[in-house]
Write a structure and sequence with these properties.
The chain is built from four helices and three strands. It is α+β, with helices and mostly antiparallel strands and 128 residues long. The chain folds into two domains: 54 residues, no CATH class; 46 residues.
């Protein structure tokens, strides 16, 4: 549940919906702060026509904050970069080893369609 500050006489919104900080009660020295947010006259005349109301909604994912899917894909891309050397034509390895690296890299590229993605990602083991 989100909270939004509104002008009570017109129902005009004064800010964007946001979660109620957990420490509001101790800050104001009040028990039962949620019951007192609908009418802010106790804060003074400047707040006489304001109140916090509960509204539906949730916070959007913040910029700079990654989702589990983004984090898992970033890890897979990093593992791909770390294994780029295995695809160079002058790397000496057996055909079987080359196939193992090709499969490993294919599994990394397909990680987003793997079972459990993004919450329970199981990255493939690097070939020896």
């Amino acid at each position: 549940m989100m909270w939004q500050l509104k002008k009570l006489s017109t129902n005009e919104t004064l800010n964007n919906p946001q979660p109620l900080p957990e420490n509001w009660g101790p800050i104001f020295g009040l028990a039962g702060i949620q019951e007192r947010l609908g009418d802010l006259t106790w804060l003074g005349d400047n707040f006489a026509d304001m109140g916090w109301v509960q509204v539906e909604g949730s916070l959007p994912v913040e910029a700079g904050r990654t989702t589990p899917a983004e984090a898992a894909w970033a890890t897979a891309k990093q593992l791909l970069r770390e294994s780029d050397w295995s695809m160079l034509p002058d790397v000496s390895m057996t055909v079987g080893d080359k196939q193992a690296w090709i499969k490993y890299r294919m599994d990394l590229r397909n990680i987003r369609s793997s079972t459990g993605f993004p919450d329970a990602v199981s990255f493939p083991a690097k070939p020896n």
